[in-house]
Design a protein that fits this description.
alpha+beta, rod-shaped
């Protein structure tokens, strides 16, 4: 009787094929996870910057705006009395003017504002991922 002291070529090929398939599946899953992580990180960063922009606008309005031009508008808002202007240029919200309030340029789909009952300034911004952020700021103390 002959003793087997190793594996046959067929057994090695089958085993190697299985190892390659498992490694490829694991690598694909790992790549997908890293890609998803980077996309989610960008979305989170964009949303954080949009919230900071909304906070900067709120602080600017509270600094003593005389009035907002135009009263209702999409894409542009000037805070008269402070010399500050927010404008959506392409997909970037830009801020012009001197102010101690820090501001990061933000990538947005849309930016709009409206004056409600001459007492409230409603600001709405839409992030690139579709998240919509709104705020209402009291302007009743501001002389018209």
């Amino acid at each position: 009787m002959k003793k087997n002291k190793g594996f046959t070529l067929l057994e090695l090929i089958v085993t190697l094929s299985i190892v390659v398939m498992v490694t490829a599946a694991a690598g694909s899953a790992l790549f997908s996870a890293f890609q998803s992580y980077s996309v989610n990180l960008k979305i989170q960063d964009d949303q954080y910057n949009a919230r900071l922009a909304l906070l900067a606008m709120t602080r600017d309005v509270h600094r003593g705006v005389l009035h907002v031009e135009p009263p209702d508008g999409s894409g542009k808002m000037e805070l008269v009395g402070l010399g500050i202007e927010y404008e959506l240029v392409g997909d970037r919200l830009k801020r012009r003017g001197d102010s101690p309030v820090s501001f990061v340029e933000v990538e947005l789909k849309s930016f709009s504002h409206e004056t409600v009952d001459d007492r409230w300034l409603k600001i709405e911004i839409e992030c690139m991922d579709g998240l919509v952020l709104q705020t209402k700021i009291s302007i009743s103390r501001i002389p018209q």
